[in-house]
Amino acid sequence: MIVEIDNVELSFDQRKILYGVYLKAERGKVTGIMGRNGSGKTSLLKIWFGSLKAKYSHIRIDGIHQRQKLFKSGKVVFLPQHQLLPTKIRISDAFELFDLDWRTFIEHFESFKKYEKMRIRELSSGELRVVETYLVLSAKKEIIFLDEPFSFVAPVYVEKLKALMARKKKDSVIVVTDHFYRDILEVSDRIYFLKNGYSKTIETEQDLANEGYVLTSSRER
Ligand SMILES: Nc1ncnc2c1ncn2[C@@H]1O[C@H](COP(=O)(O)OP(=O)(O)OP(=O)(O)O)[C@@H](O)[C@H]1O
Fold first, then answer.
1. Is 88 domain-assigned?
2. How far, in Å, CA of 84 to CA of 107, rounded?
3. Residue of the nearest CA to atom 13 in ligand 1?
4. Looking at the domain assignment, is residue 150 inside a domain?
5. For residue 137, which of 98, 81, 94, 193 has the smallest C-alpha distance?
6. Is the CB of 54 under 6 A from ligand 1?
7. Which end of the chain is less congested by CB atoms within 10 angstroms, N or C?
8. For 10-52, how does the pLDDT look when each residue is reduced to its tens digit (9 = 90+)?
9. Does the beta carbon of 42 lie inside 6 Å of ligand 1?
């Protein structure tokens, strides 16, 4: 499966946010999106998913223009930047909601064993992000959008989530954005950088330095 978005035009009031964007994401590859704060990454994911209306946007799946919002196809799952799960439910209920097996999760995230009967509100921000990202990645959808899955997450769990993404990309189109740029560079097979409303492909930390996203490439230090 190949999912593309182009001809995006988004403004808020008179402020142009996106106007020269083309992204292509495909099964078998993780597609990363990077850019400074406010460059439009979240907006772009929302337009792609269908929860934000742009003046123009053109979305294709396997070359076929999609008239309906992508989320209506039932093929896509979206981890939003802000909390996904309701705070009152138990963690075990969240696994039931996603039709996923708690024991499989525990095989990979053993230290979460003690939380099974706890409620979502009892998790720390990072623990919640691990659970939410795991659920979304494991949701057996053809298209997976992840907006900042690594926020608040300890390096050991980031590694586990990256390994999960590497496994899941065989079955699903995965698009991810995050400011943990080294992790995005590592896990992504193709990376787009958003700047001044446009997208361009980048590959290395040096490219990010050239775009002014990081101060200097670590190789130069
Ligand atoms: N509902 C809104 N109303 C007005 N302006 C908005 C709205 N949503 C986003 N914006 C503006 O659009 C721009 C892009 O926001 P967006 O959240 O897409 O950026 P981002 O690249 O995801 O940023 P970050 O890395 O900080 O999460 C920002 O300047 C933001 O202020």
1. yes
2. 23
3. 38
4. yes
5. 98
6. no
7. C
8. 999 999 999 989 999 999 999 999 999 999 999 999 999 999 9
9. yes
